[in-house]
Amino acid sequence: MTTILTETDTHTLSVYVANKPGVLARIAQVFARRGYNIDSLTVSPSVDGRYSRMTITAKGSVEGLDQILRQVSKLVDVLRCTDHSLDEAVVREMALIKFTTKAGERTEALQICEHFGCKTVDLTEDSMIVQITGGSEKLEACIDMLGKFGIVELVRTGKVLMARGRQET
Amino acid sequence: MAKKSITGADALVKCLENHGVEYIWGLSGGAALPIFDALVDSKIKLILVRHEQGASHMADGYARATGRPGVVLVTSGPGATNTLTGIMTAHMDSVPMIVITGQQIRPMLGKDAFQEADIFDISMPIVKHSYLVKDTRDIARVVREAFHIASTGRPGPVLIDVPKDVSSADFTGDLYPDMDLPGYHPERATVDQPTVMAIAEALSKSRQPVLLAGHGALIAGAQDVLRALAEKIKAPVTTTLLGKGVFPENHPLSLGMLGMHGTAYANKAMVECDLIMSIGSRYDDRIIGKAALFGRNAVRIHIDIDSAEFGRMIKCHHYCHGDARAVLTELIKHVGELNTKDWLEHLNGYKKKHPLSYKTRGGLKMQHILDVLNDMTGGDAIITTDVGQHQMWAAQFCKTIKPNTWLTSGGAGTMGYGFPAAIGAQFGNPDKEVWAIVGDGGFQMTLCELATAAINKLPVKVLVLNNRYLGMVRQWQELFFDKRESGVDLVGNPDFAKLAEAYPGAKGLTLKRAADIRKVLQRARDYKAGPCVINCLVEKADNVFPMIPAGAALEDMLIEAPKPHVKLAKPTGST
Ligand SMILES: Cc1cc2nc3c(=O)[nH]c(=O)nc-3n(C[C@H](O)[C@H](O)[C@H](O)COP(=O)(O)OP(=O)(O)OC[C@H]3O[C@@H](n4cnc5c(N)ncnc54)[C@H](O)[C@@H]3O)c2cc1C
Ligand SMILES: Cc1ncc(C[n+]2csc(CCOP(=O)(O)OP(=O)(O)O)c2C)c(N)n1
Ligand SMILES: [Mg+2]
To answer: So where are chain A's domains?
Structure first.
């Protein structure tokens, strides 16, 4: 069966832009005008400091998204805008999770953390903060498991993405 | 000898000169003082307007009539926001324009300082691109980029916001710097050979084709190759409101304008054709009606320089990304004469059966005046219009023969556009006859520019088709809202002829009777010393037909007024 993205599929876009004032606002406006909510957004300088890389995840129909891609691509300061949803791209995200642990729970919590390759970055008598990196499914699963201890705060970076091999991101 | 130092404002003006700018339309104020000062020593002519909206439409009219970007210069805050309507109008219709706004000094930005408006952000959705110049050294590069962006690819307005401390500081940069536009490559829209061949193949199978030529064909300067193509393959040509003039409307293959108030035969051709080839039109909702039904039995082709238009309104079978002239120049090599004899005969039958017509008896009719004007000017004049019923009748009755002689606000439908646009067009074409066809409503939005026209002795003719109504809206209320008039009666109109006479050098004429049309129009044509306003007291409540109610299918066109008992549903979907 061929993959068909549905209305609610999440798309992951990579936008390569010139580092000019207003570029983020212009891109955000295109999404807003077409009624797309940006779920996550990361911006960082690329190897060449004159350019930045944005990774944007948004939900919506494929057709609407195609329109957005074209409109974003034609912005003067945008070099490229690519939808990587169907590619075998490397997608990673990081989260910091703060949760409480009652007496006797800590060992189980640490076991779960170890299973997901989390790093403990803060530890107090009754709480801890762990850092997890990976694909979004892995993060979801980990957050789910730690949920039973009572998650106090959760901060996710949003996805970053890179195309594999020789393909351009 | 030490080089004389120049300011940022001097550099700005120098760069404008280097880009061949002849005129700047504007109005000054604190934040723009250094730039206005620099203009004192420049060969660029500064045209002082009476309202910044007027400046933006003048620049627009100049640009549409000459193909060169129009330049506007205003102060910060309200000066800048007053240009927004003009910027939006230009943006909607892909018109090249440079708008330079003064701005508060940099240390004051973001503090709600006096006359600080964040025009860079306010204008963002209605510009092709924009700049806030933060360093005096950037001025020359920014101006160069702005002209390049405004006038290449799909043209559009570019805004340059210049803080006063940037324009008054010493300029130490290079006056001829390189551009830095790594994301902007209009030159990459080259003609794709396989697509052209596929289109040629589709055309070769067509027996009932229609060429739909839009504003993009005019922008591309594709009129000659379009005509050659139409004549070679024997295909009829219809144009959009903004495409008028790219194909002579007196040509036997012309179907005139299509769409909401287009000719019956153009719209019938769209319904019955087996192929539609759009050349630089964006399939606007006012031409496709109900999108799902548009051209549903036809092979649909879309040629456009902006690929973001592809599939936006309707799905097509062939998308060809490129400049209209370049694409047609390639395409014409691969097509031959089509067998369209029956099709053309069939359409000629429609032309005979449903011609554009009006009654000459009864009161004075807008259509009648426009018909006579068309006869007198013979397609040689530049015609601008405002927005409303008069605009649609002008589109129907003023046959446009030559490119860039028909200027109207299409996408924005901006009332107040017509008169200042005519002023701009006249500046760009001092030897041409320029007519502004305006309604009594819209004219009152920008008529303060009578001063601008009078002082500059511009012989612009303003045909005020005065029905004492916001006529187009009244028409909708009559047809779709049970004649319940709400906010459309223009009681309190001035005597426009007298008003004109109040400006030294302007002339005012009055037209009341059909028998006087030719005589009065001739008097206006003979007056060359300044603007001439003709107050035409036309019938109050006439309606424009044909009409496709907004959102309805093309086949549901009302060719003439519906019988009184027929109740029309309120238009849905689009406006
Ligand atoms: C009261 C009122 C009634 C109206 N009724 C009608 C009506 O009956 N019929 C009608 O047609 N319109 C009507 N309009 C106007 C309508 O709203 C649109 O403005 C108009 O149809 C758009 O025409 P266009 O697509 O040709 O031009 P534009 O909107 O200017 O689009 C031009 C297209 O050409 C492309 N282009 C630009 N440069 C090039 C190039 N070099 N090569 C190739 N492509 C290029 C652009 O990317 C764009 O897609 C009405 C407007 C008003 C206010
Ligand atoms: C700035 C602006 N405001 C409102 C409208 C909505 N509108 C479209 S046509 C029209 C009536 C125009 O009246 P008039 O200028 O007298 O022309 P007429 O239709 O009577 O020929 C109005 C109000 C508009 N197009 N532009
Ligand atoms: Mg009126």
So the answer is: 10-87, 90-162
Both structure tokens of B394:
């002008």
**Which CATH number covers residue B237?**
3.40.50.1220
Q: Is residue B447 part of a domain?
A: yes
Q: Per-residue pLDDT averaged across A109-121, rounded?
A: 95
Q: Do B308 and A71 touch (CB under 8 A)?
A: yes
pLDDT band at B548 (very low <50, low <70, confident <90, very high): very high
Query: Is residue B415 lining ligand 2, measured as CB closer than 6 Å?
Result: yes
- Does residue B2 register a pLDDT over 90? no
Which of A66, A70, A77 has the CB atom closest to B183's CB atom?
A: A77
- Helix A106-115 and helix A136-146, axial crossing angle in degrees, nearest 10: 170
B113, B143: one domain? yes
B314: in domain? yes
CB of B542 closer than 8 Å to CB of B568: no
Domain-located, residue B358:
no
- Please indicate whether residue B103 is annotated as part of the active site: no
- CB A123, CB A99: distance < 8 Å: no
A79 touches chain B (CB under 8 A): yes
In this prediction, what percent of chain A has a pLDDT beyond 70? Answer: 95
**Is B299 found in the same domain as B214?**
yes
B311–A67 CB contact, under 8 Å: yes
Q: Is B544 in the pocket of ligand 2 (CB under 6 A)?
A: no
- What's the mean pLDDT when you consider all of chain B? 97
Q: How many domains does chain B have?
A: 3
Let me know whether B226 and B330 are in one domain: yes
Domain ends where: B324, B353, B382?
Answer: B353
The verdict on whether B366 is a catalytic residue reads no
Structure tokens that stand for B219 in this block: 């922008």
Topology of domain A10-87, CATH? Alpha-Beta Plaits (3.30.70)
pTM of the model: 0.96
Q: Catalytic site residue B223? A: no
Give the list of residues 6+ apart from residue B155 with CB closer than 8 angstroms, or none.
Answer: B69, B94, B95, B96, B128, B219
Tell me the CA–centroid distance for residue B150 and ligand 3, in Å: 34
B386 lines ligand 2 (CB under 6 A): yes
Neighbours of ion ligand 3 (CB under 5 A): B 439-441, 467, 469, 471
Q: What is the pLDDT of residues B428-441, one digit of tens each?
A: 999 999 999 999 99
Q: What's the domain range around B261?
A: 193-353
Contact between residue B456 and residue B504 where contact means Cβ atoms under 8 Å apart: no
CB contact under 8 A, B308 and A67: yes
Ligand 3 centroid to B525 CA: how many Å?
Answer: 23
Residue of B nearest to A69 (CA): B308
Which tokens sit at B296?
A: 């549903």
A90-162 folds as Alpha-Beta Plaits (3.30.70)
Do residues A83 and A33 lie in contact, with contact meaning Cβ atoms separated by under 8 Å?
Answer: no
Tokens in use for A20?
């000019």
B17 and B145 belong to one structural domain: yes
pLDDT at position A63, please?
A: 82
Residue B288 contacts by C-beta under 8 Å, 6 or more apart in sequence?
Answer: B294, B295, B313, B314, B554
Return the CATH number at B100. Answer: 3.40.50.970
* A70/B308 CB distance under 8 A: yes
Which of B120, B161, B166, B184 best probes binding to A when mutated, by most A CB atoms within 10 angstroms?
Answer: B184
Complex-level ipTM beyond the 0.90 threshold: yes
